[in-house]
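The protein record minuted underneath.
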Amino acid sequence: MWWSADSGLGYTAGAALDHESVRSLLVVDALAPVIEWHQRGLVPLGPRLTADPRCRFVLGDFFALASAPDPGFDPAQPGRRFHAILLDIDHSPKNLLHPRHAAFYEPAGLHHLAAQLLPGGVFALWSDDVPDAVFLDSLCGVFATAEAHVVTFPNPLLDTDSASTVYVARKAGGE
């Protein structure tokens, strides 16, 4: 089971579903209208995501669900643990959409998140900023391994290349 919190357009969820190994995917969004846009096909990937039987949308606040021991991310299965949690909400661990998100990026918040992963589970985070050494240290203090990967891609709006950081952290176990 994979879980994705994403920017609302569904690109992170779509990329996850490209992998045949993904048997199920929860897409959690805090805004009911965004979920409705997907269901009505008003966003580019909406029809694809809603038609895929592996994908289910859940209305919820990622940050509240990440810190809750139960029910956790899946209201249909309280306490469910995940193979992967993919996060694409804030612009970066320092450039937040809301100040209340800040606690999530601290070690205590990351420990709560790690508890929702199965042994060997992966947490991946997209960031629009350069790698943040302090955040990477926090990840390394909670997870068995953590890395920051800079990804470059063509940006047709700026007619140049852009870069983002993808953090990947793996929980111990599950070898």
In short: The first strand starts at residue 2 and ends at 5. The chain has a mean pLDDT of 90.
